[in-house]
Amino acid sequence: MYLGELSGLKIGQATRDAFGDALKELGDKYPGIVTVDGDVGNSTRTEVFAHAYPERAFNVGIAESNMVSVAGGLASTGHIPVVASFAAFLLCNAYDQIRMSISFPHMNVKLVGTHAGISIGEDGPSQMGIEDVSLACSLPGMVVIVTADAVSTKAATAAMLEYDGPVYLRLGRPKVSEIYTEGDTFEIGKANTVREGDDVTIIANGLMVAGAIDAATKLAEEGVSVRVIDMHTVKPLDVEAIQKAAHETRAIVVAEEHLSHGGLGSAVAMAVSQANPVPMAYVNVGDCFAESGDPQGLLDKYGLTAAAIIEAVKKVK
Amino acid sequence: MAAQANALSLEELKEKGKVLRRLIIRMTTEAGSGHPSSSLSAVEVVNALWFGGFMKYDPENPTWEARDRFILSKGHAVPVLYAAMAEAGYFSEDDVMTLRKLGSPFEGHPNMKRLPGIEASTGSLGQGLSLGIGQALGARLNDNGSNVFVVIGDGEMGEGQVWEALAAAEKYKLGNLTAIIDQNGYQQTGATHDVLDLGSFEEKIAAFGWYVQTIEGNDQAAVVEALENAANVTDRPKAIISKTKKGYGILPILEETGDVNYHGKPLSPELAEKALAFLA
């Protein structure tokens, strides 16, 4: 079973694969794109771009600090560096470099963290970026995007290249459900309501959007009308959509593949508390490092499932 | 364009060096904080780069694409950069006297977002050489003949990122990148060989495949000659180990204080008076 199966969603590409394809496709439209890689291009899929545009691809070796600052230098000469690595190593290893070489001077650099969340599976907790959203959101001026499927990832890749400034895009390793179809809109900072409902709102991002749709499908059978919002941009947050949901549905559940602190849940709670406080519940990894195991087993064990979301909905309704 | 066409003679450079030193002392004493001694050690290098004909730049057009880039990786020494840029015509001496004051773009460390002509925001040590690699690669892609110069502190060489960068610059054979290590021998709490002895920079950097030259970095003629030699090397990155003295130019005045390191302290108004008189 995978997230999205209950609601009849098909399994599609992994978001990292969609990113690699999109980057290559956009190579001609944005001649400024250069990739800076810390020798994981075959995992992050920047290699797809690198094969098409070898003169615009730089692999600086296993040296994330240097990698990020090199990208800052390239941006200051008018290029659009895309720096991809595992989310854990990009945000945690090179945080000071992201802060000083990218965020503080507001460089037009696109940071792409792949293998985020516990769904990377067997490689274990050292490889799981589960605090990356919190770290990225802490940086002034940083746009933070977490995509749910292949179509929205392609759209997000185009949108972040069009945007002038630093962006963090979070991607996952496994194949995920298809939520969107070609032509659906994606706008940085503008949430997508993927299912209408009146009784409760589930705000989710990443692979938990499919879980939320599953939960909504199941709850509909019990007569509960659930709104599902894909909050793909954590910063800047679509506060209007959140406050509207709080007002209209009077209860909110936030679901994300991230630690309990500093991620989407924290951001949504701040927005809700400022205008229209309503009961809230949270589905996330909690305050712990996970462990090695198969992805589905991990999602079950750490409570990132439709069942866990349903339980959370019942707490707030 | 400024620079190459207007290269100063050696005698003129030496006079300019005194002007820079006086301005460094005045601005840090006025601010009541800052790093004058770390700035003073690098005067001859910065002076030669900006006024000896080694950098292309245009104060009237600070974003001119083909300009050369100067990165002060040891960002705490920014008074030497502000002094050089004031002399080059980016802004006035009066402007830089607002150093470190609220509202002034002359911050305690370089901030490229607030001051046109600053090429890198620095102050977290170790990142300047990597930024320089990015700019050198960018210049190569832009095919505009732009060169990049990075001044790094010797204490700063303790940062691992510098060694990551040394390897990467050699991989890409960045002949348009020159690193100058201001080896003044001291860092915050004492002598660099006591805090973390990295041995011979010359041997280690040469082992990465760089062109390396070691000079007496407070000897203006030696600095000019070393930069000329480096300019002739175009097939690989270049390093100049610049052996200097912290506080050079006013050493007898600082020695009176009994503090040869004098890190992160401005001169008192009384001491500054003496230093300025000594430089006159």
Descriptive account of the structure:
The complex is a heterodimer of chains A (317) and B (280). Helix content of chain A is 39%, strand content 19%. Chain A has 317 residues and is of the alpha/beta class. Chain A folds into two domains: 12-177, Thiamin diphosphate (ThDP)-binding fold, Pyr/PP domains (Rossmann fold, 3-Layer(aba) Sandwich); 192-316, Rossmann fold (3-Layer(aba) Sandwich), CATH 3.40.50. In chain A, the strands form three sheets. Chain A has a seven-stranded mixed sheet with strand order 3-2-4-5-7-6-12, sandwiched between helices. In chain A, strands 9-11-10-13-14 form a five-stranded mixed sheet, sandwiched between helices. A two-stranded antiparallel ribbon of chain A has the order 1-8. In chain A, helix 11 (264-275) links the parallel strand 13 (252-255) and strand 14. In chain A, helix 1 (15-25) runs parallel beside helix 3, helix 1 (15-25) packs across helix 8 (150-162) and helix 10 crosses helix 11. The model of chain A has no long low-confidence stretch (mean pLDDT 97). With 280 residues, chain B is α/β, with parallel strands linked by helices. Chain B has a domain at 4-16 and 41-88 and 110-243: Thiamin diphosphate (ThDP)-binding fold, Pyr/PP domains (Rossmann fold, 3-Layer(aba) Sandwich), CATH 3.40.50.970. Chain B is 42% helix and 12% strand. Chain B contains twelve helices and seven strands. Chain B has helices at residues 10-31, 36-41, 43-51, 78-88, 93-96, 128-142, 160-171, 192-195, 201-207, 220-231, 251-256, 269-279; strands spanning 69-72, 148-153, 177-183, 186-187, 190-191, 211-216, 238-243. Chain B has a five-stranded parallel sheet with strand order 1-2-3-7-6, with helices on both faces. Chain B has a two-stranded antiparallel ribbon with strand order 4-5. In chain B, strand 2, helix 7 and strand 3 form a beta-alpha-beta unit. Chain B is globular. The model of chain B has no long low-confidence stretch (mean pLDDT 96). Classes of the chains: A alpha/beta (317), B alpha/beta (280). Chain A binds chain B through residues 34, 36, 55-56, 58, 60-61, 63, 65-66, 68-79, 81, 96-97, 99-101, 104-106, and chain B through 65, 111-113, 119-124, 126-127, 130-139, 141-142, 146, 160-161, 164-165, 167-168, 171-172.
